[in-house]
Write a structure and sequence with these properties.
Number of helices of chain A: 7
Number of helices of chain B: 17
Structural class of chain B: mainly alpha
CATH superfamily of chain A: Cytochrome c oxidase, subunit III, four-helix bundle
Strand content of chain A: under 5%
Strand content of chain B: under 5%
Shape of chain A: elongated
Number of strands of chain B: 0
Distance between the termini of chain B: 8 Å
Oligomer: heterodimer
Helix content of chain B: 55-70%
CATH topology of chain A: Four Helix Bundle (Hemerythrin (Met), subunit A)
CATH class of chain B: Mainly Alpha
Radius of gyration of chain B: 23 Å
CATH topology of chain B: Cytochrome C Oxidase, Chain A
Largest interface: A-B, 40 and 38 residues
CATH class of chain A: Mainly Alpha
């Protein structure tokens, strides 16, 4: 068979996939909304236990990474694959920083015994249990997406380096970038909902 | 383009040899026609397993009290019957088989937009089914929650719920990717000049289905993940002891699982819309109304989920709104039925097996649809909620509707798939058995349901015995019909099929039977004056 290439189709497919991811998180946001309406006072209290500073740093890190991934696509489009690789590397480093921060954040909570199913959780009021369960579930699922996105971008980076992604053929990188923006976007919603409304 | 190009230089997709031959050639194929058949073979195995489980339940229910096995086995049987039939047979159903086999040809494409993703979806389908089935043999016994996995029981039961839920999650992922693939295919690969309103109506139905797959399935995905996290980590979203809400689970579950009914039925309607004009030798009546009613069903069907929950605890405002919306879905469905019947009016009707099965579909679907309205009405719902009446209603839709349409589609495209005809007489006899058996099996369930027989009960009061026994005999007739039908189709020794055995007027009938690997020698085009259904 002759090769059939349809970049617009590939992009359309990616957008639809991103749509399904938003709906996946949409189910969680729905649970959040129901619980928040039911236990608004407890949610206010519990949110004080999250470190808004680390959250803000991570938000900034992800915003920067979104910018660098967009810049890397432009660089590749203009034929500067070397710059493209460097910018993708910066993006991946940002992803690493995010994960390290999250490790300390989660690690601290788990250390003091605050995690779903722990004895400490069972002594808390219902609203706090829901809040921390949602916190772990939502940020956990987000982290999983971040790791998948980082893997896709790593593949794209290798392909830029090896010359498989060129100024005429960069739809994989573009789709990886779109996915990365999704990861960023979901965090943009998670951050205020979990950290800032106190 | 007529039957002349049957002597074709390019091999048919069945004979084609790529890199690998034999079974490996099939398992590594990216050809949409082969993948469609692979879905069909897998689903047929699952379907037969599901039928056997159903018959085992009927056997136990032949008399009140325990006959052959205990209540826990019965709970396991109806759960597995539901999981297999819903998630691995009717949800992928016609869209995966005929959407794959026929849709790309009908829009004049060589394949779907992402052929490798298509194969990947099939593997996910097999993987999901395997995980779901493994729940029977591993852990602490088969799940006993019913296919709906209602919390809090699904969180507290000691049976192997996680495997079943994980299997359903993977199957959902497969369904999403198939939907995504079909949407992009229909947007990008239609023949030049074939605008949306020049597309045949089966692709329209597949298009509407694909959107529901993409929009609804992620919700059940996250819900099933929550059940898994609930069981492994005790996150407590659905556990009232920790502040969660079991009714929330029901909402999340039905936000997907009601639209899933339309994932099943829309392609079935699409197939019937192709078959009826072909065998009436008339142009379909109300082309645009049918196309748009598919989209309307997909849209409105999204907002009716809570009619499964009228007795679960909801405000009365919510209940009447959901009831009203449920009634609204009947409008586009009825538009289709009226259009099918009108298409037959003054047509030159030729009652061949596909047409016969389609008539069966219309009849059974109407009974299922109208009893659905009595369930959507608030007052009657309270009376018949969770009774055998519901069981009868959804089997009329899902088996009488989707199942019979599947058989119709199989008899319609069989000559195209295998290049052989089948025995019409035997197909008609099988239909009589199937139709009579089906009604004898499920109609008594309406009556004993109205009398108060609850669904999912292992035992029952003596006054329901007669109805239960009628159902049992119906089940036997139905099984005979299935065996006859499959026997007939598995022969594959009928006369060679011409390119267009039925006088069909869509693109798939312009190419040889079975189609060549790349479908078309000359890529079809549509001029500005050409209408859909002009290919004859």
């Amino acid at each position: 068979m002759e090769e059939h290439r349809d970049d617009i189709g590939a992009r359309l497919g990616m957008w639809i996939f991103i749509f399904t991811e938003i709906l996946l998180f949409g189910g969680l946001f729905l649970v959040y909304a129901v619980m928040r309406a039911g236990y608004s006072a407890d949610f206010h209290q519990a949110a004080h236990h999250l470190n808004a500073f680390i959250g803000a740093v991570n938000t900034l890190v992800l915003l920067v990474s979104s910018a660098t991934v967009a810049m890397s696509i432009t660089a590749v489009q203009k034929g500067d694959s070397k710059k493209g690789v460097i910018l993708l590397l910066v993006t991946l480093v940002c992803a690493g920083i995010f994960l390290v921060n999250k490790y300390f954040e989660w690690g601290h909570k788990i250390h003091i015994g605050l995690y779903p199913g722990s004895d400490l959780m069972l002594t808390l009021n219902h609203g706090s249990v829901m809040f921390f369960s949602l916190y772990f579930f939502m940020t956990g699922l987000h982290m999983l997406h971040l790791v998948i996105g980082a893997i896709v971008l790593t593949i794209a980076m290798v392909k830029v380096k090896s010359g498989a992604i060129t100024p005429n053929k960069y739809v994989l990188l573009e789709n990886g970038g779109l996915y990365w923006h999704l990861v960023d976007l979901i965090w943009i919603f998670l951050f205020p909902l979990l950290y800032l409304i106190t | 383009m007529t039957a002349e190009n049957i002597h074709h230089p390019e091999p048919s997709y069945l004979e084609y040899r790529g890199k690998y031959k034999g079974l490996l050639g099939w398992l590594t194929t990216t050809d949409h026609k082969r993948i469609g058949l692979m879905y069909m073979y897998a689903m047929m195995v699952f379907f037969i397993v599901g039928v056997i489980l159903g018959e085992l339940m009927r056997l136990e229910l032949f008399r009140p009290g325990q006959q052959f096995y205990g209540p826990q086995v019965y709970n396991g049987l109806f759960t597995l019957h539901g999981i297999i039939m819903i998630f691995t047979v009717v949800i992928p159903g016609l869209a995966a088989v005929f959407g794959n086999f026929a849709m790309p040809i009908m829009i004049g494409a060589k394949d779907v937009a992402f052929p490798r993703l298509n194969l990947f979806s099939w593997y996910l389908f097999i993987l999901g089914a395997a995980i779901a089935l493994s729940s029977q043999f591993m852990g602490d016994g088969p799940p006993d929650t019913g296919w709906t996995f209602y919390a809090p029981y699904s969180v507290t039961t000691h049976t192997n719920v996680i495997a079943a839920v994980l299997g359903a999650f993977v199957l959902g992922f497969s369904s999403i990717l198939t939907g995504l693939n079909f949407i992009v295919t229909i947007h990008r690969l239609r023949a030049p000049g074939m605008t949306f309103f020049k597309m045949p109506l089966f692709p329209w139905a597949v298009y509407a289905t694909a959107w529901i797959q993409v929009l609804a399935t992620p919700i059940v995905g996250i819900t099933l993940l929550m059940i898994i996290a609930e069981r492994t980590l005790r996150i407590g979203f659905f556990d009232p002891n920790l502040g969660g809400d079991p009714v929330l689970y029901q909402h999340l579950f039905w936000i997907y699982s009601h639209p899933a009914v339309y994932i099943m039925i829309l392609p079935a309607m699409g197939v019937v819309t192709e078959i009826i004009p072909t065998f009436s030798q008339r142009r379909v009546f109300g082309y645009k109304a049918i196309a748009l009613s598919s989209m309307a069903i997909a849209f409105v069907g999204y907002f009716v989920w809570a009619h499964h929950m009228f007795t679960s605890g909801m405000s009365s405002t919510a209940r009447w709104i959901f009831s009203l919306l449920t009634f609204l879905v009947a409008v586009p469905s009825a538009i289709k039925v009226f259009n099918w019947v009108t298409t037959m009016y003054k047509g030159s009707i030729d009652v061949k097996p596909p047409f016969l099965y389609s008539l069966g579909f219309i009849f059974l679907f109407m009974i299922g649809g109208l009893t659905g309205l009595s369930l959507g009405s608030l007052a009657t719902n309270i009376h018949v909620h969770d009774t055998a009446y519901v069981v009868a209603h959804f089997h009329y839709i899902v088996f009488g509707g989707v199942g019979f349409a599947f058989f119709a589609a199989l008899h319609y495209w069989y000559p195209k798939m295998y290049g052989r005809m089948y025995n019409f007489k035997l197909a008609n006899i099988a239909f009589v058995f199937l139709f009579a058996g089906f009604n004898l099996l499920y109609f008594p369930q309406f009556i004993i349901g109205l009398m108060g027989m609850p669904r999912r009960y292992f035992d029952y009061l003596p006054q329901f015995t007669f109805g239960m026994q009628l159902s049992f005999y119906g089940g036997i007739l139905l099984a005979i019909g299935l065996v006859l039908m499959l026997y007939n189709l598995f022969q594959k020794n009928g006369a060679k099929a011409p390119a267009n055995p039925w006088g069909g007027s869509t693109l798939e009938w312009t190419i040889p039977s079975p189609p060549p690997v790349e479908n078309f020698d000359v890529m079809p085009e549509m001029g500005p004056d050409e209408e859909p259904y002009d290919y004859k």
